[in-house]
Design a protein that fits this description.
Elements: E1 14-16, H1 42-58, H2 62-68, H3 91-106, H4 115-136, H5 150-159, H6 166-177, H7 179-195, H8 202-216, H9 223-232, H10 240-272, H11 288-300, H12 306-328, H13 338-351, H14 353-372, H15 378-388, E2 400-405, E3 417-420, E4 429-434, H16 442-452, H17 457-466, H18 479-493, H19 501-526, H20 532-540, H21 547-559, H22 563-585, H23 591-601, H24 606-612
Parallel strand pairs: 1-3, 2-4
Antiparallel strand pairs: 3-4
């Protein structure tokens, strides 16, 4: 079966977890006070404990404070000096911190906790287990990743830094002044990676330098200047003279501290380029195969082995092939035996070149239909999506959303779109960035906004925030849940687009197939050691024979191991949960009830979502 690949389909959407700019969780070293246990119930004591952990972690750096909370003082957090935080390679300190926190948690009686606190306890425990594994592979981590590395994310984070009063402006400018020391610690980390033989590939280093250069080359049009002006002008307590002075000082800080830091980082990457001992997948590093299994399970939030995930992907792809062939009249029903399904899919890949052309025609027609139906304006699309999901998804809280566009100078280096996660105590105002360079047609814009907006990242975030969860849940990152849900939402959006049913099925299944192929390539490259030539042969079997495009996909996967599995395996995990829910509920199955349950559980490993979704069901 040939599938249709978009021109920019090798780049994924993302949500920007704005507080994560340091390499690892700074876990506090303390035990819960014994004296409080006599005055408080076990549940109150546990919430007090988690609040202390939350406050200490959030206060670890300025970005964490100002993006996590609008009013940190209401949580008892007093801001210290401005800082981005530091990179550390001290694994013993990290292990000690994790073990200390685990000891603190053991002081609580798990069975005396209510369901929400038990869920929080389980999530914390799972996260700490993952943190211990992370400590073993600390130098394998890559903060300069090609998809969401610091070099591309930091400018976006700074451009959205909330400026509401004079104090915010002073803190922001003080933060810019600390960029050199933050980048020095980042460079130090990269040097230690190089000494351990774990520095990035030459091609990845080249891409990182290009990304840095693109930001530095913006000159007077740098959006850290224009966005600062926009924000400062809205601060009423400032006089026009003060606003002008601050605008001038911001430009000075950018040119004196931020841009030189980028220049220094670029020079360091250039210096270290060539020290990497591996231009291929992770499996060629010492313990690389084990590390890949760890990061995949960690990022996805699944205990499935890599081989189990691989088989899961193949089975879904076989179902997608069968569904597509049925729509276009090429074949009958799907087989039950997975080997027969795989053989059938492979056969179709060899002989179905005409299918790819048909999908291309359907996509062009569908895009014209979407455009003619008005699906070209982001605000109207978001409204259409919000209204369209009302029957099958629980009602979200009322919020505001502002759609912005990626600056042209950075379009080649940023994702097609991304959602900026709001403060947990001020989630009414939300921002989605759209990269116009990747929006090839109206249908792409429609499904992208479903992924980032309704019922994707924005919807999942604000719905969960409205349940008023324990604040500590917001400092944990479970990419498989978050990106898996957004992919699930994107797939659902085809049925909401102005398309015929057959068009929607064909294009949705094709989209799923493409993600499946990237997932198999990710596993093939990092776990099985595929070369570029083997990767080219793999994609050629499915109709993509442009070696330049495949080589870009290969380089992207090399630079971001396991990234595609967050999206695709995360999506498949939600489908598995749905099957289980349907089987249990039978004729009483309700999509809205299922969505309500998994959304109320919130971001967590999938085994915990499965465990707790039954307890979150509302009458």
């Amino acid at each position: 079966m040939s599938v249709r690949f978009g021109k920019n389909s090798s780049v994924l959407h993302t949500s920007v977890k704005k507080i994560i700019l340091v390499l690892c969780l700074a876990i506090p070293l303390f035990l819960p006070g014994c004296q409080s246990r006599f005055a408080e119930s076990e549940n109150k004591a546990f919430r007090r404990f988690t609040n202390e952990v939350f406050c200490q972690e959030t206060a670890a750096n300025t970005i964490s404070i100002h993006y996590t909370l609008k009013n940190p003082e209401e949580f008892g957090i007093e801001e210290a000096h401005a800082t981005f935080g530091q990179f550390s390679t001290d694994t013993r300190q990290q292990m000690a911190a994790v073990e200390n926190l685990e000891t603190a948690m053991e002081k609580f009686s798990y069975h005396k906790l209510d369901v929400q606190n038990r869920l929080t306890y389980d999530v914390m425990k799972a996260y700490l287990e993952r943190a211990k594994e992370n400590a073993r592979y600390l130098l394998y981590e890559e903060p300069l990743g090609l998809v969401s590395g610091i070099q591309t994310q930091l400018p976006v984070v700074l451009s959205e830094y909330p400026l509401e009063d004079r104090s915010d402006v002073d803190t922001y400018l003080a933060l810019l002044k600390t960029t050199p020391e933050y980048f020095d610690s980042l460079i130090g980390f990269e040097r230690e990676k190089a000494e351990a033989g774990l520095f990035m590939s030459d091609e990845a280093a080249k891409q990182v330098m290009m990304q840095c250069n693109a930001f530095m080359g913006m000159g007077e049009n740098n959006y850290l200047i224009s966005t600062f002006v926009e924000r400062v002008k809205t601060i009423r307590e400032l006089s026009e003279k003060e606003k002008s002075d601050y605008i001038e000082k911001n430009a000075l800080m950018l040119n004196s501290y931020v841009l030189p830091s980028y220049n220094k980082l670029m020079a360091a990457v250039e210096e270290l380029r060539g020290t990497g001992k591996n231009e291929a997948g992770l499996c060629y590093y010492p313990d690389g195969k084990e590390y890949y299994e760890h990061i995949v399970q960690s990022q996805v939030g699944s205990k499935r082995t890599v081989r189990e995930m691989q088989e899961m992907a193949k089975q879904q792809m076989a179902e997608d092939v069968a569904a597509m062939e049925q729509v276009i009249g090429l074949a009958g029903k799907p087989q039950n035996d997975s080997e027969e399904q795989e053989a059938e899919a492979g056969e179709a890949a060899q002989n179905g070149a005409e299918t790819g052309s048909l999908i291309e025609e359907v996509l062009e027609t569908a895009s014209i239909q979407a455009a003619s139906a008005g699906a070209v304006n982001p605000v109207s699309i978001l409204k259409t999506l919000e209204d369209g999901i009302a029957g099958n998804f629980p009602k979200p809280p009322e919020i505001n959303v502002n759609v912005k566009y990626v600056p042209k100078a950075l379009q080649a280096h940023l994702s097609p779109a991304f959602y900026m996660i709001p403060a947990i105590d001020d989630y009414e105002d939300n921002v989605i960035y759209v990269n116009e360079a990747h929006m090839g047609n109206a249908l792409t814009l429609f499904t992208t906004l479903a992924h980032e907006g309704y019922p994707g990242h924005l919807y999942q975030t604000i719905y969960y925030a409205d349940t008023k969860p324990d604040p500590i849940r917001n400092i944990f990152n479970f990419g498989g849940y978050v990106e898996g849900w957004a992919t699930y939402a994107e797939m659902a959006s085809y049925s909401l687009a102005p398309l015929k049913k057959e068009q929607a099925v064909l294009l949705q299944r094709n989209s799923s197939m493409v993600l499946g192929l990237y997932t198999l390539a990710d596993i093939g490259i990092h776990y099985d050691g595929w070369s570029k030539e083997e990767t080219e042969a793999f994609f050629a079997d499915y109709g993509l024979r442009d070696t330049a495009v495949v080589d870009r996909i290969y380089d992207l996967i090399i630079g971001s191991p396991g990234n595609y599995l967050k999206y695709y395996i995360g999506y498949l995990e939600f489908l598995e949960l749905k099957k289980e829910w349907i089987q249990e509920k039978g004729e009483e199955f309700s999509q809205k009830k299922f969505h309500e349950a998994v959304l109320t559980v919130g971001p967590a490993p999938f085994e915990l979502v499965e465990k707790y979704m039954w307890e979150m069901e509302k009458p």
